[in-house]
Amino acid sequence: MRRKLGMVFSIGWIMGLVLLSVLGPLLMTLEPSQPIADPLLSPRTHPPLGTDALGRDFFSRVLYGSRWTLVAGSLAAAITVLGGTSLGLAASVSVRWIDRFLIGLINAALAIPGLLFALLLTASMGPGFRTVILAIGFGLVPGYTRLARAIFLQVRHEEFILAARSLGARPISIAFRHILPNGLRGLMSLAALHFSWSLMGITTLTFLGLSGDPSIPELGALLNAGRQYIRTAPHLSLIPGTIISLMVLAVYHISDALD
Amino acid sequence: MVPVSDRPRIRILILLLRRLGTGFLTAFAALTLTFFILRLVGSDPVDTLLAQGLTSLEQAEQLRKDLGLDQPILNQYASYLAGLFQGDLGASLYTRRSVLQSILEQFRWTLELAFSGLVVGILGGLLLGISASWWRESSIGAFAATLASLLTAVPVAFLGIVALWISSKTPTSIPRTILPTIVLGITISGPMARLILAHLSESLEGPYILAARARGIRRSFRLLWHALRPILPPLLSLIALEAAFLFAGTVVTETVFSRPGLGRLMVRAILEGDYPVTQGLVTLAALFYTGSHIIADWLALLFDPRLRELS
Fold it and tell me: Which of A187, A254, B219, B246 has its Cβ near the most Cβ atoms within 10 Å?
């Protein structure tokens, strides 16, 4: 019961954030990139969350920031899930040497600690917002592939696979008709887990200033920008930080419940 | 595969050596991957220098020759490996200083932070995990378990900023040097506590706990000795795996607190496109990471007789 309640809250919070960040520009008449009042105002009736160091409306910046983070996190997670699922499926049904080769490649990538692998990809492509998405998306592929392959291998040892094979089904059709659909449940939890990691990864890289363009109000970038005003205007970093944490926690919780 | 001997001592030795062998292969594959990702995915580093106006066209040609970038990729790979075995990681594109030397200079700062953070993290994780297990039935245990999963989800950057904010509010100033250690320790303690709790709950179901209880051994002793002792080998492996969290944690913590160290060196190298520095740092980190995994598996093999039977 408590678990169900947590799930409802988590889904509600994520849906609310998505709605707010989609509808935000319709509700807000204020521009996130233009100064509207004195700089570093604390939260008050108007503007509701005060202003940043350049006097821009912080509420609309946070709304736009949530949108950037959610979109970037979803794109990265999409890369991870698509790439990892196809590689995992390929490894689990193909001949032994292909499986061995893929596993070797994955283990090599996993010998480089996660964030460092993403940093390596960022370095090879040069800093930029697109790079950050690609680096996190591809950076999570090796770990996802390993887990997805384990799920597929488990399905592969079921008896209905043997039955399909003895009826003469081709490996491709076994992979897509039988192994993939039966592994879906496990994959959903895995995908949610990797979505929470991609949100965490994206905000970490943008916090480190690797998104190149400082004018993009992404939550990690806002967190970094607010850091130097921690004494005078703590809300500038505490609000984006809290939103990121709750976002990651909610998605993490959903993945836990799906498991 | 080397056949595993029946004699126990030789058997262990073979298992340990086999682990060393696979670890060596993995590290080698990781180095190869690092080299090819940096060289094949990205743009030409000298072009980046040209675009920034840091070098002229004639100098660029000379620079390419000096760096060996005009050579075929496999020759470059061979000279990278040859350099690596001689302890030569190349020189920075910007400062022309030896990469190994700049890494060694910054290493002390990161080591200090990582080690003290790890100690705080292990202690915090044990404290949190054991209290969650001890007060399992009451709300204190639920609180400890929730806190542990909360800490897993909070980004290090945000935790650091909250620590800065709290320290700016307190009348007596907390020394700035211990703040990064505490922040790093807290982030490590989250996942650590969750795993300790999971392992402890499983271990407490074991028949040896029932046996200890039948012998009239106190609950505290049962938890801290009988249940905790068998989970120490997996915990050792876990601590080695924490090296990954540790690295991510130090990169971010160094940025939050504007501390010198390897993480800052890495971020600056990426922003400047200084690929020899990035390559050197990733290479060393991969070696360190695989090394700590080998040691963890060795310790597990030595402490847990069951693993020797299985493998």
Answer: B246
